[in-house]
Amino acid sequence: MLNMKRRNFIKAGGVVAAASLAGFPFISFGKSTGRVVIVGGGYGGATAAKYLRLADSNIKVTLIEPKTHYISCPMSNEVLAGERNISSITVSYQALNTNYGINLVHQMATEIDPVQKNVRTADGRNFPYDRLIVSPGVDFRWDAIAGYDESAVAAMPHAWNAGNQTLLLRKQLVAMEDGGLVIIIAPPNPFKCPPGPYERASQIAHYLKQHKPKSKILILDQKDKFSKQGLFKQGWKQHYAGMIEWIPASQDGKVLAVHPDKMMIETDFEEHEGDVINVIPPQKAGKIAQMAGLTDKTGWCPVDQKTFESTIHKDVHIIGDASIAGKMPKSGYAASSQAKVCAAAVAALINGQTVAEPSYVNTCYSLITPNHGVSVSAIYQLNDEGNIVSVKGAGGLSPMDASAWEREQEANHAHSWIRNILSDSFG
Amino acid sequence: MLRTIIFSSVLVSFLAIISVNATERSATTLSYACAGCHGTAGVSAGTSIPSLAGLPSEYFIEAMQKFKNGKRGATIMDRIAKAYSNEEIVAMAGFFEQQTWVAASIEVDAEVVAQGQTIHEDKCARCHLAAGKYTEYRLPRIGGQWADYLYFYMKNAQIEGFKQPQPKLMKKSLEGLTEAELTALAQFYAAQ
Predict the structure, then answer these.
(1) Is A146 inside a domain boundary?
(2) What Cα–Cα distance (Å) separates residue A211 from each residue in A173, A204, A278?
């Protein structure tokens, strides 16, 4: 195996940016004066900003995002395992300004007025738009699990947005004694990153196996099956026999209440005490989408799946986790793919042109050990009813029973993927 | 030679089929979707995922067709390639051919690179001209390609039964090379 060092992706991103300026065909539609405001700078919002400028460099693009640096959720489970430093998945927004002329506003968007077509930020500034793209990610349903409110996250972190919560969970794992019990509460569908809780269990097991081999992991699931289930179970058996126990909802996995003060979880028939408890709460569209009235009774945002324009408010587009995007999962890759489709549509609409036929893709890698990667992939198209569906006969899961060498290559692809998705979105 | 001629005529007929159908997905739309893994405009930033920028369209089409038809082994591209029509593959090939190649930026060990150069000159230089930087038709550029990708490609080619399309001469050249030698070769090319 090659002994390749993981290089700083920001450097690699710089290379890509240079390439974009030198050789990328800017497809300019002519002299438009469109103003597009983008709220939310995750994979969706950042990619939309960049690809809008690639589609039409005359459009003025403003990205409103309170943070100056983005921390990726994908690969943050490796931080929990101690396999990766969080700085390696932290990226500045600055390249979006330097390389593509995107106006960066590091403020919280507090109000969207879809009638006046204006976004207001916490510092009282107004940002009028011709079209708005909202990429707010998810918000947690704080009322869904008794005892799990915003004050409970200090004792029982969710770590489902990467950053301090990730570091807190890591700290708790490091402080735990050998022989301890880690409990993960996996959320009901739909939620951000469907294979994430199970990759997390794998990465924590990888850490415990090396440093605290008598410890155990219990997954209390709020559903009866999960993404890449066969591949995860095979990997667990292979690497972590007896260490990870998964309890589906129908077999008393359903959580009734959590007690942060007692570090205890209540189900129908049992009380589980854990040394480290990771609660991944049920989810809904990000707060600003709810405040702007962009959500329906499901808590998510209905959109025209060709343009991602809201079916509730005209000239407002919603992409990423918050949108109802047909068969696409809620993932960083899906968000970035939707962002490209949306950017092309917005550029066409601003220029009075026909919206092009879309193509979408999603690939999710999961790491069961640092050298054991598995993936699921799908390519999507729009069907005659206007719904995003996967192309039949393509995509799917890594094969079961693959050789260690195949798993190793996929693990390597996972590490390559994170560098590419980050530089494609932010570089 | 005969295969080459047949292949060219197939390519021409693919191109001829392309119409201005309103529901057709454009080369740009299709190719942008690849960038999440292969980098913006096909310039990869990941060590095991190849850059596609500047690849000859003939090579791209052949690779995608073989992934699609199960004639080239893969971890994931076989699953992905099946989603695209022949016309769409040709469209993407045209897009990536037009993009500017950017060599991988990697740290290399000079001694290992020198070892790789010796093997290259002995076994590979007859076809992979200009230290692998030469590219034409079905010969991809490998000088400046990512080392892990090249290593995986060569290592897989050595596995009995693995479907790795390659000229007979290449198969023979790779026979018996150790992992260390493959690593040296990969590093030599990546450093170009």
Answers:
(1) no
(2) 10, 11, 19
Residue A164 and residue A56 in one domain? no
Facing B37 at nearest CB: one of A19, A363, A379: A363
Q: How far is A248 from chain B (nearest CA, A)?
A: 30
Residue A153: CB partners within 8 Å, gap ≥ 6?
A165
pTM of the model: 0.92
Return phi, psi of residue A60, to 5°. Answer: -85, 120
Q: What is the pLDDT of residue B23?
A: 61
Residues in chain B with CB shorter than 8 Å from the CB of A391 are: 82-83
Which residues does residue A365 pair with via DSSP β-bridges, in sequence order?
A375
Boundaries of domain holding A233: 153-279
Inspect the interface and report whether the beta carbons of A416 and B30 lie closer than 8 Å: no
Is B19 an 8 Å CB contact of chain A?
no
Give which of A403, A377, A400, A402 is closest to A390, Cα–Cα: A377
Total Cβ atoms within 10 A of residue A234: 17
The pLDDT assigned to A124 comes to: 98
Judge whether A197 and A281 are in contact, CB under 8 Å. no
Domain's final residue, options A250, A279, A308? A279
Quick one: pLDDT at residue A32?
Answer: 53
Provide the number of structural domains found in chain A. 2
**CATH number, domain at A178?**
3.50.50.60
**pLDDT at residue number B24:** 84
The alpha carbons of chain A give a radius of gyration, in whole angstroms, of: 22
- Does B76 contact A344 at a Cβ distance shorter than 8 Å? no
- What residues contact A143, with CB distance under 8 A and at least 6 apart? none
State phi, psi for A311 to the nearest 5 degrees.
-85, -5
E strand segments, A299-359: 301-302, 316-318, 323-324
Measured distance CA(B147)–CA(A412) in Å, rounded: 12
Interface test with A, best of B43, B82, B105 (most A CBs within 10 A): B43
Distance, CA of B14 to CA of A291 (rounded, Å): 50
